[in-house]
Amino acid sequence: MINQLEKLLKQKDINPTAMRLLVLDYFLKQETAISLSDLETDFDYSDRTTLFRTLKTFEKKGLLHSIKDGNITVYALCTDNCSEEFHADSHIHFCCSSCKKVFCLSKVKAPDVEIPSNFKLEKLDIIAHGLCADCIK
Ligand SMILES: [Zn+2]
Ligand SMILES: [Zn+2]
Ligand SMILES: [Zn+2]
How far does residue 103's CA lie from ligand 2's centre (Å)? Predict the structure, then answer.
Protein backbone atom coordinates (compact mmCIF):
# COMPACT_ATOMS: atom_id res chain seq x y z
CA MET A 1 0.00 0.00 0.00
CA ILE A 2 2.75 2.45 0.96
CA ASN A 3 4.49 1.66 -2.31
CA GLN A 4 1.34 2.51 -4.20
CA LEU A 5 1.06 5.83 -2.36
CA GLU A 6 4.70 6.64 -2.96
CA LYS A 7 4.24 5.95 -6.62
CA LEU A 8 1.29 8.32 -6.79
CA LEU A 9 3.28 11.08 -5.13
CA LYS A 10 6.30 10.53 -7.34
CA GLN A 11 4.11 10.62 -10.44
CA LYS A 12 3.22 14.16 -9.47
CA ASP A 13 6.81 14.99 -8.61
CA ILE A 14 6.13 15.20 -4.87
CA ASN A 15 8.71 14.06 -2.34
CA PRO A 16 7.01 11.29 -0.33
CA THR A 17 7.37 12.35 3.31
CA ALA A 18 5.56 10.44 6.05
CA MET A 19 3.04 13.24 6.48
CA ARG A 20 2.26 13.46 2.76
CA LEU A 21 1.73 9.71 2.57
CA LEU A 22 -0.75 9.89 5.44
CA VAL A 23 -2.66 12.79 3.92
CA LEU A 24 -2.81 11.12 0.51
CA ASP A 25 -4.02 7.89 2.07
CA TYR A 26 -6.72 9.87 3.87
CA PHE A 27 -7.90 11.55 0.68
CA LEU A 28 -8.07 8.24 -1.17
CA LYS A 29 -10.58 7.06 1.41
CA GLN A 30 -12.91 10.06 1.12
CA GLU A 31 -16.03 10.25 -0.99
CA THR A 32 -16.44 13.98 -0.62
CA ALA A 33 -14.18 17.01 -0.72
CA ILE A 34 -12.41 17.84 2.55
CA SER A 35 -11.70 21.15 4.26
CA LEU A 36 -8.64 21.99 6.32
CA SER A 37 -10.78 21.81 9.45
CA ASP A 38 -12.01 18.30 8.57
CA LEU A 39 -8.41 17.26 8.06
CA GLU A 40 -7.39 18.81 11.36
CA THR A 41 -10.10 16.92 13.22
CA ASP A 42 -8.91 13.61 11.83
CA PHE A 43 -5.20 14.37 12.23
CA ASP A 44 -5.33 15.68 15.77
CA TYR A 45 -1.66 14.95 16.36
CA SER A 46 -0.39 17.30 13.70
CA ASP A 47 -0.51 21.05 13.53
CA ARG A 48 -2.65 23.12 11.23
CA THR A 49 0.24 24.82 9.46
CA THR A 50 1.80 21.53 8.39
CA LEU A 51 -1.53 20.24 7.14
CA PHE A 52 -2.22 23.47 5.30
CA ARG A 53 1.19 23.37 3.65
CA THR A 54 0.64 19.77 2.62
CA LEU A 55 -2.67 20.72 0.97
CA LYS A 56 -1.08 23.66 -0.83
CA THR A 57 1.81 21.51 -2.10
CA PHE A 58 -0.63 18.87 -3.35
CA GLU A 59 -2.71 21.51 -5.07
CA LYS A 60 0.29 23.12 -6.71
CA LYS A 61 1.56 19.77 -7.96
CA GLY A 62 -1.77 18.73 -9.45
CA LEU A 63 -2.70 16.09 -6.91
CA LEU A 64 -5.60 17.96 -5.30
CA HIS A 65 -7.93 20.63 -6.62
CA SER A 66 -9.66 23.15 -4.41
CA ILE A 67 -13.26 24.26 -4.49
CA LYS A 68 -14.27 27.48 -2.81
CA ASP A 69 -17.76 27.39 -1.41
CA GLY A 70 -18.50 30.67 0.27
CA ASN A 71 -15.77 31.19 2.86
CA ILE A 72 -14.78 27.55 3.01
CA THR A 73 -12.22 25.97 0.71
CA VAL A 74 -12.45 22.22 0.28
CA TYR A 75 -10.04 19.89 -1.48
CA ALA A 76 -10.50 16.76 -3.55
CA LEU A 77 -8.19 14.45 -5.45
CA CYS A 78 -7.40 15.24 -9.07
CA THR A 79 -7.28 12.87 -11.99
CA ASP A 80 -4.03 11.76 -13.60
CA ASN A 81 -4.49 14.51 -16.15
CA CYS A 82 -3.60 17.26 -13.71
CA SER A 83 -0.01 18.35 -13.35
CA GLU A 84 1.99 21.16 -11.81
CA GLU A 85 0.26 24.50 -12.38
CA PHE A 86 -2.26 22.89 -14.68
CA HIS A 87 -5.56 21.52 -13.47
CA ALA A 88 -7.79 19.67 -15.88
CA ASP A 89 -10.67 19.27 -13.44
CA SER A 90 -13.45 20.79 -15.50
CA HIS A 91 -16.27 19.03 -13.70
CA ILE A 92 -19.10 20.50 -11.68
CA HIS A 93 -19.19 20.33 -7.89
CA PHE A 94 -22.28 19.70 -5.84
CA CYS A 95 -22.76 21.19 -2.41
CA CYS A 96 -25.44 19.61 -0.25
CA SER A 97 -27.39 22.24 1.65
CA SER A 98 -28.31 19.75 4.37
CA CYS A 99 -25.10 17.85 5.27
CA LYS A 100 -22.82 20.56 3.74
CA LYS A 101 -20.70 17.96 1.98
CA VAL A 102 -19.13 18.89 -1.35
CA PHE A 103 -19.03 16.22 -4.05
CA CYS A 104 -16.97 16.08 -7.25
CA LEU A 105 -19.37 15.25 -10.05
CA SER A 106 -16.52 14.04 -12.19
CA LYS A 107 -18.79 12.87 -14.98
CA VAL A 108 -20.57 16.19 -15.27
CA LYS A 109 -18.45 18.47 -17.40
CA ALA A 110 -18.59 22.21 -16.96
CA PRO A 111 -20.00 23.96 -20.03
CA ASP A 112 -17.71 25.99 -22.25
CA VAL A 113 -18.02 29.63 -21.47
CA GLU A 114 -16.88 32.48 -23.59
CA ILE A 115 -14.76 34.95 -21.68
CA PRO A 116 -13.96 38.32 -23.32
CA SER A 117 -10.59 38.00 -25.05
CA ASN A 118 -9.01 40.76 -22.95
CA PHE A 119 -9.59 38.65 -19.82
CA LYS A 120 -7.56 35.60 -18.91
CA LEU A 121 -9.53 32.68 -17.50
CA GLU A 122 -7.63 30.62 -14.94
CA LYS A 123 -10.29 28.54 -13.30
CA LEU A 124 -14.00 28.09 -13.71
CA ASP A 125 -15.84 27.05 -10.55
CA ILE A 126 -19.36 25.83 -10.95
CA ILE A 127 -21.08 24.74 -7.77
CA ALA A 128 -24.52 23.20 -7.88
CA HIS A 129 -26.54 23.42 -4.67
CA GLY A 130 -29.21 21.04 -3.47
CA LEU A 131 -29.65 17.78 -1.61
CA CYS A 132 -27.27 14.85 -1.99
CA ALA A 133 -28.46 11.27 -2.51
CA ASP A 134 -28.18 10.46 1.22
CA CYS A 135 -30.08 13.53 2.37
CA ILE A 136 -32.97 12.99 -0.06
CA LYS A 137 -33.78 9.65 1.55
ZN1 LIG B 1 -6.58 19.01 -10.72
ZN1 LIG C 1 -26.30 15.69 2.04
ZN1 LIG D 1 -13.72 18.04 -8.07
Answer: 9
> Rg (Cα) of the chain, in Å, rounded?
16
Ordered by where they begin, the domains of the chain are 2-136 (1.10.10.10)
Going by the annotation, the residues of the binding site for Zn(2+) are 96, 99, 132, 135
Q: Show binding-site residues.
A: 96, 99, 132, 135
Q: How many CA atoms lie within 13 A of 80 on its CB side?
A: 4
Residue 112 has pLDDT above 90, yes or no: no
pLDDT at 45 over 80: no
Mean pLDDT of the residues in the chain? 92
pLDDT at 2 over 80: no
Closest ligand (CA of 134): 2
- The span from the CA of 69 to the CA of 73, in Å, is 6
